[in-house]
Specification:
The protein is built from 19 helices and six strands. By secondary structure, it is mostly helical. A six-stranded mixed sheet has the order 1-6-5-2-3-4, with helices on both faces. Bound molecules: flavin-adenine dinucleotide.
């Protein structure tokens, strides 16, 4: 079997698999959720493998995606990145003899009749821990008739294997993942065509017209969307891997800038990890302490990212104050009525009009480029806590802004990162101070000690007001 069985969860019945005849006579259908790529995708590989195992009894493989007209505050910036990726995906699949169906509307309503109409021999989907998509999956499983399997094609170590519970911190998840990496950090097989090429059929203009999201947040031009572009971006980053030691300096090119590709499933984290190993001549089966590899890149790419998936998978309150640790909730409660030096409402945050030019610059970086530097994200969210009326309001503001402007928004990493900043999730209690309680504090002086704050502010000046 191409796929390790641990990557798989059976959502309805386990009576399918190599050698077992399928229930329906139609194709194996792969409903894509998070993994919008053809290569390095365990879910697609599994769908193809099932079809092969069924032999004559299954009519090929189909792939579908169902796009709601709006989703968690997504804007045209994010839809554009996603749709360009899908156009490429359809062409690639067509070359492999796999038809692609782009449905529009709400997945829980549109998918069951579509899927049932094919009498599929099996349905495969990929793993997505966020609430809305989890709920869609539950309904689609309930309202369809075929065997239904889910593959974690996002995490190197499948989320349900890495840990069976919400982890307290990176320190508790790391040893579990490191122990399993020799098994799961394995090479991907090539995708082999299923049949002769087919014709792409999607009317992409009509699909674009179905989107009702906010067009005012425009697509960005500095980052090319799609699977091929994702692989090129990875190659470009590996070429300058040494710069990763500067990743905490917002005015240097240090970070990989891979998060939009990882978020939209156009690049597999496991591919990035494997390519780092190849470049450095490392044996993926014997990595040891991954914090030391490639200036900590694998620590972020695997441990921190999979910790975020663990958080959203096991903590249903991942975007609520009630999802914070008990010590953090108690401490924030004790400081509810502390005097705030400044308080702002959503429009002021949104328009980067606070008294703090460093905060405003970070907000402008996100609004203009679709990607705030990782170090600034921490400062940005912590100041939202400090200058909001309540932790609840701070959390809602940070999530709304991040999801609206960031290309990689609406991601487990975002919910975990914001919960870390505002609610101490995956962190420990620090010295108590006003408003923050025991949540870790950050200030502009700390930033000044780390990087050239003035240059950063100068990089994202307020828009020139046009002459009257
Ligand atoms: C307040 C706040 C909000 C955030 N919002 C998001 C978000 O919406 N989407 C998002 O993908 N990340 C988010 N992060 C996590 C992190 O800042 C980004 O993943 C990182 O900046 C993305 O840029 P990069 O790919 O160039 O990072 P690199 O440093 O090059 O890291 C490579 C990859 O490792 C993973 N990674 C790196 N840092 C983290 C981290 N702290 N937690 C989890 N995974 C990590 C990501 O998948 C990232 O793409 C947030 C962090 C904070 C503190």
């Amino acid at each position: 079997m191409v796929l390790r069985p641990e990557r798989l969860r059976c959502l309805r019945t386990n009576t399918i698999g190599p050698g077992i005849p399928p229930a329906g006579s139609g194709p194996v259908i792969y409903w894509i959720q998070r993994e919008r790529r053809v290569h390095d995708n365990w879910a697609l590989l599994y769908a193809i493998e099932l079809h092969r195992a069924f032999g004559e009894a299954s009519q090929g493989v189909r792939v579908c995606f169902c796009m709601p007209p709006s989703f968690l505050g997504s804007t045209m910036r994010q839809y554009d990145f996603k749709l360009h990726g899908f156009e490429e995906l359809e062409r690639e699949l067509a070359d492999l003899g796999i038809p692609f169906d782009m449905l529009t509307g709400s997945p829980d309503e549109e998918l069951p009749p579509y899927l049932n109409s094919y009498a599929p021999s099996a349905i495969v989907t990929d793993f997505e821990p966020l609430r809305t998509k989890r709920n869609w999956t539950t309904i689609v499983v309930r309202d369809t008739a075929a065997p239904f399997h889910q593959v974690d094609a996002h995490n190197v170590v499948p989320a349900w294997i890495a840990s069976s519970k919400e982890e307290y911190a990176a320190a508790t998840l790391r040893p579990k993942i490191e122990r399993l990496l020799p098994t799961f950090l394995e090479p991907y097989p090539e995708v082999v065509p299923v049949g002769p090429p087919v014709q792409p059929t999607t009317d992409w203009q009509a699909v674009r017209a179905s989107v009702t999201s906010d067009p005012r947040v425009a697509p960005v031009s500095w980052l090319v969307p799609g699977e091929q572009a994702g692989r090129s971006a990875l190659a470009g980053f590996l070429f300058r891997l040494d710069t990763y030691q500067d990743r905490n300096d917002p005015i240097k090119v240090g970070q990989s800038d891979l998060s939009p590709y990882l978020h939209f499933g156009q690049l597999a984290p496991q591919r990035a990890a494997l390519d780092v190993c190849t470049l450095l001549g490392l044996d993926p089966a014997a990595l040891g302490d991954i914090r030391t590899i490639a200036h900590g890149f694998l620590e972020e790419l695997i441990i921190r990212r999979e910790l975020a998936d663990n958080f959203t998978h096991y903590n249903d309150q991942y975007d609520q104050v009630s999802g914070f640790h008990e010590w953090a909730q108690r401490s924030l409660n004790e400081h509810r009525s502390d005097r705030r030096e400044h308080t702002y409402h959503y429009e002021v945050w949104d328009e980067a009009r606070t008294h703090d030019e460093l905060w405003n610059a970070a907000q402008r970086q996100m609004v203009r480029t679709g990607k705030m530097h990782g170090f600034m994200r921490m400062y940005w969210a912590k100041k939202i806590l400090e200058w909001s009326h309540s932790p609840e309001e701070a959390l809602a503001t940070a999530i709304a802004l991040n999801d609206r402007y960031s290309l990689d928004g609406r991601d487990p990493n975002g919910y975990a990162g914001i919960a870390w900043s505002i609610g101490g999730v995956h962190d420990r209690a620090w010295t108590e101070r006003p408003v923050y309680g025991k949540i870790r504090y950050m200030n502009a002086n700390g930033c000044r000690r780390k990087f050239d704050v003035d240059s950063y502010i100068a990089s994202f000046p307020p828009e020139e007001s046009s002459p009257e």
